[in-house]
Design goal:
Helices cover 27% and strands 26% of the residues. By secondary structure, the protein is of the alpha/beta class. It has one domain: Rossmann fold, CATH 3.40.50.
Length: 215
């Protein structure tokens, strides 16, 4: 017998707990968000598999465990103003928006930018501000940020993002070459100093500069 999506979601949440996702507020948010709405209709039945899935513009929606892990590592609260680099499907953005005060998110692919904006309106999420632009430059007009999350892998940590992190703030970013081992790095700012923690080994699409107007 095929499981309903709601049953598959329950199984996934149990799996996430076993994998070390302990933040109850985060788990409630993950239970509340319809991940199936963020993926192509042909893949709807796979929405609650613990796997990354393809979306438009050659990008992916991250594995639920990675979304949960990075969000938990970021240490989000309702007081926080957050910058997300790489809106993608918008799923990670909605997770963050439900946990923070304000979210600013940047996407370089115009079709994804447009689709995510429509999804935020559909789900009545009103504390997200979007920008079609080059995420490697950050969003200086809105800086500083309490938290920054980058959802694509960079070879090096972008200096402009470090500059836009508030003193005491945290950034979570995948670092590493494509085709090589990448790691999620958690960076905490202390004045002009930055502490680095190497966390989980991962595989992400590359963080690129510029914008893409493809249809």
């Amino acid at each position: 017998m095929r499981l309903k999506l709601s049953d598959k979601k329950a199984v996934l949440l149990t799996e996430l707990r076993r994998q070390g996702i302990w933040d109850e507020n985060l788990l409630v948010v993950l239970a509340d968000i319809p991940r199936e709405d963020f993926i192509p209709k042909a893949l709807r039945a796979q929405a609650y598999e613990n796997a990354a899935l393809p979306i438009d513009s050659g990008q992916t929606i991250s594995q639920p465990y990675i979304v949960a892990y990075m969000t938990q590592a970021l240490g989000v609260s309702k007081k926080h103003k957050i910058l997300e680099i790489g809106t993608g499907s918008g799923y990670q953005a909605v997770v963050l928006a439900k946990l923070c005060r304000r979210l600013f998110t940047i996407e370089r692919h115009l079709p994804l930018f447009n689709a995510a904006g429509k999804m935020f309106k559909k789900l009545n999420i009103f504390n997200i501000t979007t920008l079609f632009g080059n995420g490697m430059k950050g969003w200086s007009e809105q800086a500083p940020f309490d938290r920054i999350m980058v959802t694509a892998a960079s070879e090096d940590i972008p200096g402009k993002l470090l500059e836009q992190l508030k003193d005491g703030g945290i950034m979570v970013i995948p670092i590493g070459l494509q085709g090589k081992i990448q790691h999620i790095i958690r960076i905490t700012r202390h004045g002009d100093d930055y502490d680095h923690e190497e966390l989980l080994a991962v595989k992400f699409v590359p963080l690129l500069s510029g914008i893409v107007h493809e249809s």
